[in-house]
UniProtKB/TrEMBL annotation:
Top-rank taxon: Bacteria
Swiss-Prot/TrEMBL keywords: Ligase, Thiamine pyrophosphate
Protein's recorded name: Glyoxylate carboligase
Residue stretches spanning the membrane: none
Native organism: Rubrobacter xylanophilus (strain DSM 9941 / JCM 11954 / NBRC 16129 / PRD-1)
One Pfam match: TPP_enzyme_C
Length: 583
């Protein structure tokens, strides 16, 4: 029998669940856990500058590794600061366990210092939020927390620990060799449903496979590509599915949508007659007007969460299944039903539009156009680079122009879209995959939300590269053409020649022990990227390349949802020369 204190047992559970990295901010109400954590030789703790930053770092770590991210904080505002990160993880199905300290149970009803009902606050943005009131329940509560975070559609869990529970003198009998992580099953598809789905694919003239983030999470990219190649079906990943198929693959047909999309993908989609969605959500920025999106085409929806099927619109066939198991079952059914197919007119149509319905990215003018920045990124960095980006005009340009070739190599906070996410997510991604080059694509405004987390990477010698698309202009808000007559530039203090780039981002990086360089002309970008990679690795700190871009450049997004009906006839008659215009 192995008896130990309850907090020591909690740390043993974390170790046994595979935790190697944890983020957090120590505080009075969580110090007993930190004391036990200090004894661990397996778990490395990184003290972040803000609890929201800790959740985003844990998020980035989980996305690149597939493991459960862990973030720790004290009572009161520590937990409320985590809510944005919990929401982001919930929205994007990212497994995470957040641990908060709490005032002693005996004073929770007396308005004790920093006592807040964080469980009720976190409940809507977690798979499970729980306060442990009995020390003897700690071990199995944490076992259950990790099981829930991983099971089904992954997501975040919050465990709240009152101080008296952490301080309990109780010793528990715990030996991780005697038990282990709680098991769970991944749902497999019904054979009848798989046969029907395959029949629909074989009967269609212009079918599409549409993998979402669920394919990435399930590690099902190989099965996806193998099925597509065997049946010669084009693949259109959703934005969260970027990397599920290499973007230079002959069957890659681009990303459909009204923002992070390609023109040829939208045109091809409107010609399709069957869409097989796997682990996707039919998000509104993907579909636009549902009447046009659905059209006369049929839909199959495969998802691990039964509640997702039919949430946006009823599919012609719904299948509850883990993405990997479903794709494997479809592949095996295809082997038994039909010989390998040769590329037909539909595949040739994909090749035709992919090579003609393009946009320029070779601009040589100054100020730099954002499109040119992404051309440089695509040409300079190799297929093994991990890219991280968040939300804004720069992220929309990234979705339109940036190439991705491997799963878990393009990270974005898709549904929630919190500004500042990418800076701490880079920290988590680099710690999760230290052998990889991590590059964060940031906007000037987003960077300022959580830029303090750069100091964490500098302190712990975690190198990565940030590329800032700086128009100092709140570009996405302006592109929305909101009729409020506000002068955003003056409001932000960006007016006047003396402050053309807003605040001094290079100076901020250097003040935090990191590195920075500002670029004003397109021909300077490549050398600056080369410098940033070399200098970051040599100094073991983050390095920023700040590119001053044209203020008025808008991302060529699809029409607004109420006008998307006009999109189909326009695309049908759009000549290749016109498609290659310079927006």
């Amino acid at each position: 029998m192995a008896r130990m204190g309850v907090m020591d047992a909690v740390v043993k559970v974390l170790e046994d669940e595979g935790v190697e990295v944890a983020f957090g901010v120590p505080g009075a109400a969580i110090l007993p856990l930190y004391k036990a954590l200090s004894k661990s030789r397996r778990i490395r703790h990184y003290s972040v500058r803000h609890e929201e930053g800790g959740t985003h770092a844990a998020d980035g770590y989980a996305r690149v590794t597939g493991r459960v991210g862990v973030n720790i904080g004290t009572s009161g505002p520590a937990g409320t600061n985590m809510i944005t990160g919990l929401y982001t993880a919930m929205a994007d199905s990212i497994p995470m366990v957040c641990i908060t300290g709490q005032a002693p149970t005996g004073v929770l009803h007396k308005e004790a210092f920093q006592a807040v009902d964080i469980v009720e606050i976190a409940r809507p943005v977690t798979k499970w939020a729980v306060q442990v009131k009995e020390p003897a329940q700690l071990v199995w509560t944490f076992r259950e927390a990790f099981r829930i975070a991983r099971e089904g559609r992954p997501g975040p869990v919050l465990v709240d620990l009152p101080l008296d529970v952490q301080r309990s003198p109780l010793e528990v009998d715990f030996d991780p060799r005697r038990d282990g992580p709680l098991p769970f099953e991944r749902p497999a598809p019904g054979s009848g449903a798989i046969r029907e789905a395959l029949a629909m694919i074989l009967a269609a003239e212009r079918p599409i496979l549409m993998p979402g983030g669920g394919v990435i999470l399930a590690g099902a990219s190989e099965e996806l590509v193998e099925l597509a190649e065997y049946l010669q079906v084009p693949v259109s990943p959703t934005y969260m599915g970027k990397g599920a198929i290499p973007e230079d693959h002959p069957l890659y047909m681009g990303t459909v949508g009204i923002q992070t999309s390609q023109r040829y993908a939208n045109a091809l989609f409107l010609e399709s007659d069957l869409v097989v969605g796997i682990g996707n959500r039919w998000a509104e920025r993907h579909t636009g007007d549902l009447d046009v999106y659905r059209g006369n085409r049929k839909f199959v929806h495969i998802d691990i969460d039964p509640r997702q099927i039919g949430r946006v619109f009823p599919p012609d066939l719904g299948i509850v299944s883990d993405a990997k198991l479903a794709l494997r079952a479809l592949l095996e059914a295809a082997w038994a039903t039909t010989p390998p197919r040769e590329p037909g007119p539909w595949v040739r149509r994909v090749e035709e539009l992919r090579s003609t319905l393009l946009r320029r990215d070779d601009f040589d003018s100054a100020p730099v156009k954002p499109q040119r920045v992404f051309r440089e990124l695509n040409e300079f960095f190799d297929e093994d680079t991990i890219f991280v980006t968040a939300i804004g005009l720069y992220q929309i340009f990234s979705g339109q122009f940036q190439k991705t070739y491997r799963p878990r190599h393009y990270l974005c906070c898709g549904q929630a879209g919190p500004l500042g996410w990418e800076v701490p997510a880079c920290l988590g991604a680099k710690l999760g995959r230290p052998e990889k080059l991590v590059v964060g694509v940031v906007g000037d405004y987003s960077f300022q939300f959580l830029m303090e987390e750069v100091a964490v990477a500098a302190q712990y010698r975690v190198p990565y590269v940030l590329v800032m698309i700086n128009n100092a202009y709140m570009g996405l808000i302006r592109q929305g053409e909101l009729p409020y007559g506000m002068n955003f530039a003056v409001d932000l203090g960006y007016s006047g020649p003396e402050s053309e780039y807003g605040i001094d981002h290079v100076g901020i990086m250097e003040a935090m022990g990191a590195l920075g360089r500002r670029v004003r002309r397109p021909e300077e970008i490549r050398d600056a990227l080369r410098w940033a990679v070399r200098a970051s690795e040599e100094r073991r700190v983050p390095a920023l390349v700040e590119v001053m871009v044209e203020r008025e450049t808008n991302a060529a997004m699809g029409p607004s949802i109420d006008k998307i009906r006009e999109y189909e006839p326009v695309l049908d008659r759009l000549p290749a020369a016109q498609a290659a215009e310079g927006s």
